[in-house]
Amino acid sequence: MQRMIDVSDEVRAEIGDDEADRLLVGGTAPDRYDCTSCRAPGDVTQEPTATVLFVGEETAVLAFAHARCIPSQVVEVSEEQLQGAVRNISASTAPGSEQGVAPAPQLHVPESVPSPAGGQVAPAVLGVTCGLVLSQGTPRAALVVEPTGPVGRPGTSVGEDAFVELLMEHGFQPVSEVDQPPAQLRGWSVLMAMGQLHAVLQPAPGGGTNAWWQAHAPLQVTEAWRSAASQQAEVVMYAAPHGTIGRQPREDLLRQALDNGARKGLLLGATLPLAGT
Where is this region: Disordered (predicted)? Predict the structure, then answer.
């Protein structure tokens, strides 16, 4: 039976020609799988399937996805994230287990928010909320980022907040109307791996990318959020200074808070392409 599996050149280079050939003939790949992007069932004998290799510092995990969702590729993640994803997969496939989803909790960021010149501003604790935001009649996957306190530059007075100014220097633009999607920000992206949220990536000074924000552990998101992000291949990121949005328990209240922030001139935004899965 024909197996419709795509192994990209970069995946082949990582796993070797012999392993790639065994995948193509069915020696080491299952017929059925859960898509690592949309999490829906897939069948390599019925539909085009992409191989996705997640690579950590010491561990590599090969996963499968609908080719319509994402192309075959190599996704680099931290070893801690990869091990966490493996544990989650093991738990979700254990007898009697259920793969639940939950809203993103408030996250603590161990690194400082990088400044445009490559220096560091004062360490920040960011609250990150995932939600669907209706824009031009279409539900869009959105991340809302708000510090739990002022974010200042090095040497500035305690309590002085430069969060909005810093993000504008990075290219984020004021949002005056939430119903209009913000422009795409070149070089930035949102990393999803194995159906979970891992990081917001920014361009690195020497080329490539690094994490502007990174989850301590991969975050589960709702099926609707993941589906919107995968179908549109992008995520809208909104950001506002401390005290603007707050932790809203429902998406309708989140939208009201975003609209209020926009009216006050405190809301910034950018559309970021989806990296990985």
Answer: 93-115
Neighbours of 231 (CB within 10 A): 15
Q: Evaluate whether residue 101 is within a structural domain.
A: no
Closest CA to 180 of 215, 124, 138, 211: 138
Instruction: Give domain status of residue 99, yes or no.
Output: no
Which domain, by its residues, includes 34? Answer: 5-76
Report the distance separating Cα 179 and Cα 269, nearest Å.
12
Which pairs with CB-CB distance under 8 Å and at least 24 residues apart come from 64-67? 64/5, 64/29, 64/30, 64/33, 64/35, 64/36, 65/35, 65/36, 65/37, 65/38, 65/277, 66/35, 66/37, 66/38, 66/40, 66/42, 67/4, 67/6
β-pairing verdict for 60-66 and 32-34: unpaired
The predicted-structure confidence for 210-232, as pLDDT tens digits, reads as follows 778 877 667 788 889 988 998 89
Distance CA 197, CA 179 (A): 24
- pLDDT digits over 228-277, tens only? 998 898 999 999 998 898 888 788 899 999 999 999 999 999 999 987 65
In this model, does residue 182 exceed pLDDT 80? yes
What CA–CA distance (Å, rounded) separates 215 from 40? 24
144 and 230 together in one domain: yes
Q: Residue 129 in 3-state DSSP? A: strand
Q: Indicate the pTM of the whole model.
A: 0.61
Contact partners, residue 12, CB within 8 Å, separation at least 6:
20
Secondary structure tally for the chain: helices H, strands E: 6, 16
Which two three-digit tokens encode residue 209? Answer: 């990318």
CA–CA gap between residue 223 and residue 212 (Å, rounded):
25
